[in-house]
Amino acid sequence: MLIRTSLLSALTAIGLWTIAAPVRAQALLPYVLPLDAERLEDQGLALAQEAAQLAQLQQYELALAQAQLASQLVPTSAAVWGLLGSLYLQVEEFDAAIAALSRAKILESDNTAVLFALGTAHFRKGNYEKASDFLESGLAIDPDNPGALFDLGNTYFKLNEFDTAIAQYERSVGLDPEFWPSVNNIGLVEYEQGKVESAIGRWEESLEIAPMEPEPELAIAVAKFAQGDVDAALEIGIPALEKDSRYADMQFLIDNLWGPKLIADTDAFFSYPDVQAVLAQL
Questions:
Q1: What residue stretches are annotated with the Cytochrome c-type biogenesis protein H TPR domain (predicted)?
Q2: pTM for this structure?
């Protein structure tokens, strides 16, 4: 059993377990305490619970250490391997995440949370075809999951299958009309298609749902600037940047699926002197 092997290896490493050389018959034989598999499993599950609680507090490194030990103590638990994989995702160790989540999938092939997480992991690695396969598999079991449909839309967006991407976003919004990221990302796709006014309309719709979000505000500002409406762009865009300075980082925008056309127009907006002055203070 994996539990016994790993524990004995650990004991050997710290010098608490030794293999004695042959000795005379009258020598005392070492007594080895038997392992209680049920108790070890209970300890492993308790560690997994602690790891989940630490993750909720965003203490991911501590949570990861707990989950790693839990996976050794309870190697047949899909939930524990799924938790470990999701924590590897949080710290951006994508290969390790895929390995742990694949173990979970072997143990429980129809676990939609695991399938969706595998989709996310492959997406983060840039394996968009694999990402879509796992997301589609999960959605075949749980078709009414707005977040997974959003992720699938993002995957098709990266595959440049724009109409298919929009269809997934629209399915997501159909299930949850308040799911503003899907509305926002329809605008991102439409901007790349050259449908600028429609994209602006989508971002305005996003702000009706989530009025404090800076992303649609900045996107509208960039689009307005590209259209030559500098005053409107500055009025909307500068407060958006001041609200969340991450949106001043081009790589952050690219990671959030801002496409080449929108990025090029954002670069022009960021180069404007009034915006430059703001960026210098962020």
A1: 45-171
A2: 0.83
